[in-house]
Amino acid sequence: MQRHFDVDLEALRSTLLEMGGIAEDMIGHAVKVLTERDESFADQVQEMEKRVNALHIEIDDRCLKLIALHQPAAGDLRLIAAAIKINSDLERIGDQAVNIAETATYLCHLPRIKLGDIPRMVELAAGMTKDSLDAFSRRDVELAREVIGRDDEEDQLKSETFNELLALMQSDASTIQRAMDIILIARNLERIADHATNIAEDVIFMVLGKDIRHGAERRESPEAAQQ
Amino acid sequence: MQRHFDVDLEALRSTLLEMGGIAEDMIGHAVKVLTERDESFADQVQEMEKRVNALHIEIDDRCLKLIALHQPAAGDLRLIAAAIKINSDLERIGDQAVNIAETATYLCHLPRIKLGDIPRMVELAAGMTKDSLDAFSRRDVELAREVIGRDDEEDQLKSETFNELLALMQSDASTIQRAMDIILIARNLERIADHATNIAEDVIFMVLGKDIRHGAERRESPEAAQQ
Predict the structure, then answer these.
(1) DSSP state of A92
(2) Which SS3 state, helix, strand or coil, does residue B220 take?
(3) What's CA B167's distance to the chain center, in Å?
(4) The predicted structure's pLDDT at residue A212
(5) B180 touching A, CB under 8 A?
(6) Taking a C-beta distance cutoff of 8 angstroms, is the pair B177, B108 a contact?
(7) A53 to B214: CB separation less than 8 angstroms, yes or no
(8) A74-108 and B74-108 are packed helices; what angle lies between their axes, rounded to 10 degrees?
(9) DSSP label at residue A174
């Protein structure tokens, strides 16, 4: 029974990583619509979303069956609970990629415009997503903490892009609609980074059994922190 | 043992509803910063967020303990799984309200500007949040379906607000920054409606054991739908 359970848990983990890989590809493809001005990438993003949505339902279903059949405790239960949450974050990363692809498709038909810090934001958000999944796969708390630490840079880049594009709109009214779209894409990327941060927090909870969300770790007593 | 479990489940349900009530109040207060131009409501939103964040951690912790201690199956397990997801959606609704309050605080110091369909969007998003929680509380599948049906109207209103404000920016460059902020608030409200929709989908899954996300219900065979 336990061996069967371990096989099922391993299958759950690898399905989640498969879904994560598709979500990462969706970010990459969505951004290519913008940078290479090639709409065919948007069609691929749509196709990938179907697979992500199917996995979203499948993974939740498997998690509940694993709990009902095996009554897991401690670390195994934390793995399944983390899988439920990571599943939801990956599905939302996919949604954000779809939004980016849609906005970028629209922009393909208009003259080029400044992208602000978008290229760096993409690199950062995609890297955070990849590394949060690697941290999940390897149960790597240090990498998870490092991912969380990168979220501030993404927020900073979003603010800079926002300000840069706002200034452009104000100096040249013909750019308003396009600049607005770039700002919305910056928000989508910021949200992807937020979801990657959530995943990293779930990894830490899964491995250590410690909930560090909402600065809970910083509020811990020194005694608790040493445990 | 079962009676104790039932008491714990009931306590979980009422804590989740308490959190939902605070999240609803956060939406109302955040919007008052905008409509009444009174920053003190933003301070209250910040205070409420602390409570929501504490409940977010507490509810997840309780859910895992309930699973580990009582090994629930079927409907009880679906209730706990729904609680884990609704908890996450409520926390994110709170985040969106904080974003609205912050943007609105900034707008308080600037001349008034058109709000597009924002008042109707607020009414709709807050109503969807309230009704999704009522559906959870009463296990009311019909109400949950009705909430899901309202999401299209919110998306439509967001697009109209977006276009109206874009036209304003283009006709009067002095409005660009403020109009941009209203557009971002419209996006926050759209996201709140999305979270309420997620909650309603979780209620249907909790009650019927049927996952209707991603149009899965519409894809069902006629045989399956009759079950």
Answers:
(1) H
(2) coil
(3) 29
(4) 87
(5) yes
(6) no
(7) yes
(8) 50
(9) G
Report H helices in B140-175.
Answer: 141-171
Q: Which of residues 66-105 of A touch B (CB under 8 A)?
A: 67-68, 71, 73-74, 77-78, 81, 84-85, 88
Q: Among B56, B77, B84, whose Cβ lies nearest the Cβ of A214?
A: B56
Centre a 10 Å sphere on the Cβ of residue B138 and count the other Cβ atoms it contains: 13
Residue A220 has pLDDT above 50, yes or no: no
What's this model's pTM, rounded to 2 decimal places?
0.91
- Residue A114: half-sphere exposure toward Cβ, Cα within 13 Å: 19
Tell me what ipTM this predicted complex has. 0.88
For residue range A183-198, what is the model confidence (pLDDT) as tens digits? Answer: 999 999 999 999 999 9
**pLDDT over 70 at B110, yes or no:** yes
Q: Enter the DSSP assignment of A115.
A: -
CA-nearest of B157, B58, B177 to A168 is: B177
Q: Do B176 and A183 lie within an 8 Å CB cutoff? A: no
Q: Which two tokens stand for residue B160?
A: 């109209």
Domains in chain A: ranges and CATH: 2-218 (1.20.58.220)
